[in-house]
Amino acid sequence: MNYKALHSWIDEMASLCKPDNIYFCDGSEAEYQDMLKKLVNEKKAVKLNPEKRPNSYAFFSDPSDVARVENRTFIASMKESDAGPTNNWIDPLILKPKMTKLFDGSMRGRTMYVIPFVMGPIGADIAQYGIQLTDSPYVVCNMRLMTRMGEHILDIIEGGKDFIPCLHSVGYPLVNRPDLDWPSAPIEEKYIAHFPEERLIWSYGSGYGGNALLGKKCLALRIASKIGQEEGFQAEHMLILKLTNPEGISKFILGAFPSACGKTNLSMLIPTLKGWTVETVGDDIAWIFKKKDGKFYAINPEKGFFGVAKGTSYETNYNAMKAIEKNTIFTNVALTEDLDVYWEGMKDAPDKLISWKKDIWHKGDKEPAAHPNSRFTVPIEQAPNLAKEYDDKDGVLISAILVGGRRANTIPLVIEAFSYNHGIFMGSMMGSEITAAAISDSIGKVRRDPFAMLPFIGYHIKDYFNHWFNMKGQTSEALLPKIYYVNWFRKDEQGNFIWPGFGENSRVLKWIFERCEHKAKGIETPIGIMPDKQDLDLTGLNITDKDLDTLFEVDKKAWLDELLDLEDYYKSLGDIPKALYEELYQERERLNKLGE
Ligand code: OXD
Ligand code: MN
After folding, report:
1. CA 237 to centroid of ligand 2, rounded, Å
2. Which residues line ligand 1 (CB under 6 A)?
3. Domain boundaries, the chain
4. Is 560 exposed, middle or buried (0-12, 13-18, 19+ CB in 10 A)?
């Protein structure tokens, strides 16, 4: 939206939603503290024990509002064919009036907060400015931790920057009824709507995470992916890490992994290999762009972590645990009797807790004390391993891109793509096995999630694939990042993970780093280039030869089946780029020759 329309848009939305007050957020610490104090007084938040967790708060959502709601997330492009087969499409001419009715009076009895924010470092060419209107003070506090927000951003917009309008209401007007601790609307009234032609976001009925913090998935992925397609950058669901070798040389590596596959852990990893370090630039989203030198660079549009708490411990992610020792908002975790936080996987459970449902919980109870999607929100500056480049408007040069999902079989520990096109093919085939499904016969089947972007591509998936090839253009391979398919989740016949993961993943990162420097050897297989056993630094690691063989096995039959399944998937997507079929056919041909 043109910056000149800013105030008339705010007025128009206010006359639709009818809040009691309008409040322009300045983004200050004092404002943040006031809002949290008020939320505690209203019993909507719990202030944690300042001796254990200074300046930190816990929120508990309604049990019906605990996650992103993909089936209530819509791409309302003018034409259905522009949303493609992987999105929920609704005609905007139907959705707009429907949602207008819902928004009408939806903020009665509440304050409408105006949040000016920017995704990306200020001054970055591709930074995207936004204004979120919301009736949720919880959202304001989280947006302050997750984005660059406040009156300095309003000044920039008013000074002539176009912005993306984002309207959000929890959908619980206070008309002749008291407020709830976590107001929200019933599932059938929830709409997380994107209007790509207008670059507009409307979200109604949920106060949780990606449904409500509109800078994150809605703007920085769905709308930005469409803007990027039009304007020549890529918005991707990727972490960004800085890897430094013992000689002090650094490289930046991106990683696309689906939600809950360890992006935050990888971006904060502490290498077990001596002399190596990993620093974090981002844990969830990367915007990729090309500079005049023909190389690809990335920025992290966010400025905080909205990480999954469950499973996070000083053993699995020391840096995250350090980051959340203070100044953190927790959502749907359990509380200890002395008002600290607890979740499954953090440490041994105490005998008694207050569960995320605010019930008394006893050790041994069947239900988990914290919700599996419990979260922490924390400013990125609190990561002890923060890379100094995190706020660099010029971005970081990308040396390698990792792609991967959770696969118990078939996919080796690491495979290097033969070429960038082959790497795009690897990204297109990403997926994870379905582990719990309503339809039991789909358990074990692979749910494809190309580049971990399935829920986040704001347009037709075929055009998304085309965009990968278009961005590459005529660039020579030497300038392009190398692409790697990694799989930390391979299991043995007994169902145990073979690879220890976490800090030990640095062994794989080292090989990748040294491949980028043309130093490490690799062996060609039909599916890509893999380290020979002696090429991977395994010093001090206790792993049997048999397990190593499994980690690097190329099972011809399993791969041919994989490609058959992938071909079916491609066909279900419509007219995807021919280059992807070419890669698939070439891979099949190479496999067919194996063992001949
Ligand atoms: C996700 C997230 O769901 O990052 O992917 O929260
Ligand atoms: Mn994510």
Report:
1. 6
2. 68, 209-210, 259, 284, 306
3. 3-45+72-232, 236-303+388-592, 305-382
4. middle
Ligand with the closest atom to the CA of 377: 1
Selection from 259, 313, 315 nearest residue 283 by Cα: 259
What's the pLDDT score for residue 157? 97
Low-confidence ranges of the chain (pLDDT < 70): 435-441, 443
pLDDT at 595: 84
Instruction: Report the nearest atom of ligand 1 relative to the CA of 456.
Output: 5
User: How do residues 186-240 score in pLDDT, each as one tens digit?
Assistant: 999 999 999 999 999 999 999 999 999 999 999 999 999 999 999 999 999 999 9
Q: How large is the C-alpha radius of gyration of the chain?
A: 24
Smallest CA-to-CA distance from 228 within 298, 292, 158 is with 298
Cα 159 to averaged position of ligand 1 atoms, centre (Å): 33
- In terms of residues, how long is the chain? 596
**Alpha-carbon gap, residue 229 to 208, rounded angstroms:** 28
- Res 443: pLDDT: 67
Q: For 305-382, which CATH superfamily applies?
A: Phosphoenolpyruvate Carboxykinase, domain 2 (2.170.8.10)
Strand partners, 47: 57
d(CA 480, CA 461): 23
Active site residue 261: yes
The Cα-based distances of 24 to 131, 158, 208 in angstroms read 10, 13, 22
Pocket test for ligand 1, best of 73, 259, 406, 453 (most atoms within 8 A of CB): 259
pLDDT digits (tens, 9 = 90+) for 447-490: 999 999 999 999 999 999 999 999 999 999 999 999 999 999 99
Helices 578-593 and 556-572 meet at what angle, rounded to 10?
160
Q: Are strands 446-448 and 431-433 parallel, antiparallel or unpaired?
A: antiparallel
Q: Considering the entire predicted model, what is its pTM?
A: 0.97
Mutation pick for ligand 1 pocket among 66, 192, 217, 378 (CB with most ligand atoms within 8 Å): 217
- Residues 17, 25, 261, 516: which is the catalytic one? 261
Tell which atom from ligand 1 comes closest to the C-alpha of 258.
Answer: 5
Average pLDDT over the chain reads 96
Nearest CA to ligand 1 atom 2: 259
Distance CA 230, CA 196 (A): 11
**Distance between Cα 221 and ligand 2 center (Å):** 10
Domain 236-303+388-592 in CATH 3.90.228.20:
yes
